[in-house]
Design a protein that fits this description.
Number of strands: 12
InterPro entries: TniQ (IPR009492)
Distance between the termini: 126 Å
Organism: Cohnella ginsengisoli
Structural class: mainly alpha
Shape: elongated
Protein name: TniQ family protein
Strand order of the largest sheet: 5-7-6
Strand content: 5-15%
Length: 502
Amino acid sequence: MRLLNRVNPEVFESIYSFLFRNSTVNYYKHLASIISEQSSRIYKTNCNYVGQKCTWFPYFKSITDSLGVDINKFVLNQFDNVIFGEYMTDKLIDNRVYEKEKTKYCPSCLQENFYHRLYWDISFVTACESHNCYLIDRCTNCSKKITMSNLMQNSCSCGQIFTCMTAGVPSEIIMETQRVIQRTLLDNTQQSVILSDGRILEKSGYFFLFLAFCSIIDNLPGEIFFKQAGIYKPVINFNSAKKEERDIQMMSLVSVVSHQLISVPFQHLTNLLKNIEEINVKMNKETGKSRNRNLRRYRVLKTIIDSKDGSIYHDCYSQCVNNFSFDSFNKRLIKSNVAQKKYLSTTEVIKIMRKDFNVINHLCDIGILTSHRTNTNSLLIESASVERYYFIKNNSYSMGQLCKLLGIQFVRAVELFDYGLITAYWGPKTNGYKIWHFNKVEAHALLDRIINQSSSVDMPPASHMPLKAVLSLVVPLGHTFAEIVKKNYRWINFYCLFEKCP
């Protein structure tokens, strides 16, 4: 069909709106009047997304071709790459992200310029950024949901005029979330999203995380998010078809929570994980059945962690995984980052340190490793103590290494320790550990002290005698090598000679 009179398309106008305005300017009462074959669908649905079973598309395209415009600029499919990227699925598109049977609107926008904005049919667009108000999805008189057919006629079936309705005012946190979502969707000059913590995400990366978190929080009690978003709903509904209604308030709540999980994971994801574990434990006690009700959520979380932007969420998961009880299967499904865990199991420590259980248990008993017993008598070891163990090993000398450095025997090194000339992190005389670990810094300082008090000679003078001879003389008298060092006798070639004492 060719239309004699034409109207120009508006910015982000939907195909339904554009063709409806073209039909009325040609004196037809309704869009269905010029496409009678699709009249029932046009009256009942939005016809703004081209799906696999889309029967109206050939008729609409025929008209847009005759008007000299590209139909692809008027349908929701143009947002697919931004919202879904490579993760696009028909189920999400048809049922959850794009509204296909009912719509919503801003009365102030219609008063300024009467046409339907395409992005109003995106489920998580719930407020008007220009007028700082909620979009309206129900008639304020009869509470019926709004169809595209009624909206374009500016009248509900009850007679209420849509442009005369008053929209509610959302909270600042909702508007802040809506600004991020809408600018990311609609601003073609903006190629990325800058989060409050300075992280930069690609548009498709942001919406991948957004939809994933929407799926994770789906069907959770709404009360756990009340403080976070200021909206109360008994149950979160994003994917469920027949649960709590997916109205403006619900989708505002879902949007705020998902955005905050993306932006501030160390606060909100930690609380979420704690809550879902506590809910699972509570329901198991009430039903008397042990079930893992969070498996689906952890599988979605794993896809987040495995994505290119998932490292921060893995760090967050790893930080909190041992601070409260986790289902053992969930911990196996997502391996935590050991460096970030506060506690490690004995199995993990055995693998890290490559020592058997008895050695690990002994290290805990003598305080080298810090351990705690859980209510189930399981042994948890602080990861910080494991890190401290390796730090000391890398910054200390064994007894053999110290003796080689100073050129002395084992018994003389013990004397140095007894006189406080060198300290040991661990050892038989400190914490009962059979292997000595002496402070490297102090060992080298002691060596420097000895060298500074020494001088080199080519030939031993008659006034000097070997160290061994000195010790053989003074030890029977109750003196020790450490005492000689402490009294700062003048040494010449410390390794073999001492100045003879008068």
